Each structure stands twice: as structure tokens, then as C-alpha cells.
Amino acid sequence: MIKELYQTRYKEISLNITNGEIDSVRKKNTVRTGCRVYDNGCIGVAGVLGEPTEETWRAAEEALSQKVPYPYAVSGATQRVRMSGALPDQNEFIRSVEYVLSTLKAEFPGYILSNKISAVEAAVRMENDLGLKLYDSKCVYEVGIVVKDEASANVFDTFIFYVGELFDTEKILAIGREVLTAHSNPVPMPKENLPVIMDADIIVGPFAYSVNGMNLHKGASLFSGKIGEKIFADHFGLECSRREDTYNDFFDAEGTVLKGDAVSLFKNGVLLRGTADKLCAAEFGAELTASAVGAYDDVPVLGGAGTLRFVPNGSLDELLCGRDAIAVISASGGDTTPAGDFATPVQTAYIYRDGKLVARLPEFNFGGNLFRMFGEDYIGCAKEKFFSGSAQTLVLKGDIR
After folding, report:
1. Beta strand 356-361 with 392-396: parallel, antiparallel or unpaired?
2. Could you tell me how far CA 319 lies from the centroid of its own chain?
3. CA distance 178 to 341
4. What's the sign of the alpha-carbon dihedral 191, 378, 144, 176?
5. The three-state (H, E, C) secondary structure of the chain, written as one string
6. Tell me, what's the pLDDT at 304?
7. What is the pLDDT of residue 392?
8. How far apart are CA 33 and CA 54, in angstroms?
């Protein structure tokens, strides 16, 4: 019998914002521990809030009677630690946030700021009897300010986003000023069909479904039967990445660690492989891509959409070549057909010119066929994060209505 510990720790200082001021402070410090036991090709799992006890381990052993199959090699003989940052002093954090809020409120009195700003420290640990000892810890500041124009009938009008390992007040203020200045300058839709700058998370969904190894090998994917074929543009690449700058843990829920913390799914437009956990690898002879997910008290399953990353092929300026573009800040309600036709309503977007947001556009719809958008029409993925968020920046051509 092999015993394995899978533990997550989550700490947070969250500042709730109402009408441009901090109205409450919430702190979290939670530990969730999963105890796993493997025996005779089966897995037993038991979870507990806090540290495990002998009773937790007994419950995991008793769960073996459910005969949940796990006939795969258990990860072992790997030791690695990766740590980045720690939670700030609470009072100092509050002062920094108050400075940002008071400055934006004074400079843009016609806008109401709300939602929250947080400092989050997340850690995950996995250890077992086979010599596996993995630990990943990171601290990230998350700014998600919802903005409402006092003169607007909308529930919200735009957003100010920032994600980073430092709470850079001047950078956050610069982002806020740029967004609010542009929002105050409404213009009609341009007549020409401009490139669209988009948060990659808006459109990564159909890729996540179609590169899922089970969907890919069972004929349920847009890409089924096309491994080894060129599907997209020469400069298109997609990978599973657990590098530090993605804010992902460097290992998955089964303890798989990638060489170089990344593996290519598409390279030069060619589909090389789909995502795979140990079940998918065993069933279809696929290569492990560290794509297993699962809560502390669950049996791991194939997922890993959060690890997908488009491969950058230039800076935003290089991709645009001096052209104006449409920067999409908010787009929700989109969908993709079985033929790969993607469409989404765009609620908030701006004209992007010479490195800045300069004017607000009316709402519109954006879409196109994925094989064309990422094939002959594909402009690229920028090296920069999307307006200082955690997502990537795609530059696409598509239909604007």
C-alpha cells in the first residue's frame, strides 16, 4: 500500500470596495488535506479541513472498498520546491489601496468604483511513500475594480484589471487613468475592419475542449483524426505551461512534472498531441502533459484548461505594425459551433492607438471560424499580458457586426 498526501493552503487579504472606498476587510487562512492510498490497482481518498489525523488515513483505506480503479504508476522519486512572495503587511496594503482609490476618485469623480482588491498566497504540497516531495507557493495581487458611469443606466460600464507579484500603485493608477480617460471619449464604430486585441481567456474554451485527450481520441474534438497535420498558421503555437509566470503550480494533481515546465500541443500550426492525464495516457498511449485536476478530496481527472498558453510571436506593437486596433475589455455570452464558428457579444471595447486606449466604442458582436482566425488570418499572440492582467493577449481578424 502506498500513502500520499495532497494538501492546499490558501491565505487571502481581501478588501471590499464600495463607492471608491474600502468598506470591509476579509482574511482567509484555510488548509485542505487529501489523504490518498493506493493498493491493488485501486485508489482510496479521504479529505479533511486542516491537518490529517490517523482517522483521516483510516477513512482513505476504508475507501479502497469502493474499488475505484487506478491501475497506473504512482508518481515518485521527485523532489522540488518553488516559492515566490508572501502576503504583505495588512496595514501597509490598506494604505496602498486607499491611495489608488482616492486618487482615481479625485481625478474621475463621475465614476463609481466597486468590487475588490486582494492579496492571495496559495500553496500546494504533495508527498508520498515513493519519495515524491513537491511544494509550490506563490503570492499574487489581484485588482478587479468594477467601474460604473454615474450617468449610465448599466449595472457596470468597464473594468480596471491588474495582476502581479508586486502591488505597483503607479502602474495600477496608469492603467486606471488610461481606461477611464478612454471611456470618457465615446466614438462610433470605425468603418474599416480593424484587428481585435482580445484576452485569450475569452476564446480559449473551444481549444481546451478540442485538445482534451479524451475528446481528441474519441472523435468528439474539432481536431479528431488530425494529429500530425498542419491545421493553423505557421506562427501558431499552443502549449501546456506550468512556468512560474503563468501562476500555475509546477505539478498537476497526480504529481506529474513537465521537463522545462511546458509541453507543446501545437507547433508551427501542426497538432502534435492532446492533453493527457494517466488514464488518457494508458488508454491511448498518449504523452503525459501534467493536465490532471481535482479537489483535495477527489480522485484526479483530466482537465488542465488553465495551463493552456498560446505561444507569443512578437510584441503588441510588432503585431499591429502601427495600425489602430479594437481592444476588447469585456465580452461574455459567446459560444462555438461543432464546425468551429465562434461568436461573442462584446460589451466594452476601446480604440487602441500608439500603445494606448484612446476612445470608447459602442457594443458589437465579434466572431469568425476558428480555422480561419488562427489559420490564414492569424496575426498572433503578444508577449505582453492583456492590459496587466494574468491572461494572454491575442491579436485576431474576424467579423465585426
Report:
1. unpaired
2. 23
3. 33
4. negative
5. CEEEEEEEEEEEEEEEEECCEEEEEEEEEEEEEEEEEEECCEEEEEEEECCCCHHHHHHHHHHHHHCCECCCCCCCCCEEEEEECCCCCHHHHHHHHHHHHHHHHHHCCCEEEEEEEEEEEEEEEEEECCCCEEEEEEEEEEEEEEEEECCCCCCCCEEEEEEECCCCHHHHHHHHHHHHHHHCCECCCCCCCCCEEEEHHHCHHHHHHHHEHHHHHCCCCCCCCCCCCECCCCCCCEEEECCHHHCCCCECCCCCECHHHEEEEEECCEECCCECCHHHHHHHCCCCCCCEECCCCCCCEECCHHHEEECCCECHHHHHCCCCEEEEEECCCCEECCCCEEEEEECEEEEEECCEEEEEECCEEEEEEHHHHCCCCCCEEEEEEHHHCCCEEEEECCEEC
6. 82
7. 96
8. 13
| Residue 244 scores a pLDDT above 90 | yes
What whole-number distance in Å separates Cα of residue 289 and Cα of residue 251? 10
State the Cα torsion 233-239-243-248 to the nearest 10°: 120
CA-based end-to-end distance of the chain: 61
**pLDDT band, very low/low/confident/very high, at 388 (cuts 50, 70, 90):** confident
Pair type for strands 42-49 and 111-128: unpaired
Residue 390 pLDDT class (50, 70, 90 cuts): confident
Longest dimension (CA), the chain: 69
- The label of the residue with cell 481592444 reads 327
Q: How far is the CA of 133 from the CAs of 76, 79, 304, in angstroms?
A: 8, 5, 21
Round to whole Å and give the CA distance between 194 and 58. 62
Between the alpha carbon of residue 314 and those of residues 164, 166, 273, 381, 384, the distances in Å are 21, 25, 24, 7, 9
Q: Which residues of 288-304 are buried (b: 16+ CB within 10 A; e: fewer)?
A: bbbbbbbebbebbbbbb
Q: What was the pLDDT predicted at 389?
A: 83
Q: pLDDT value at position 261? A: 98
Whole-model pTM over 0.90: yes
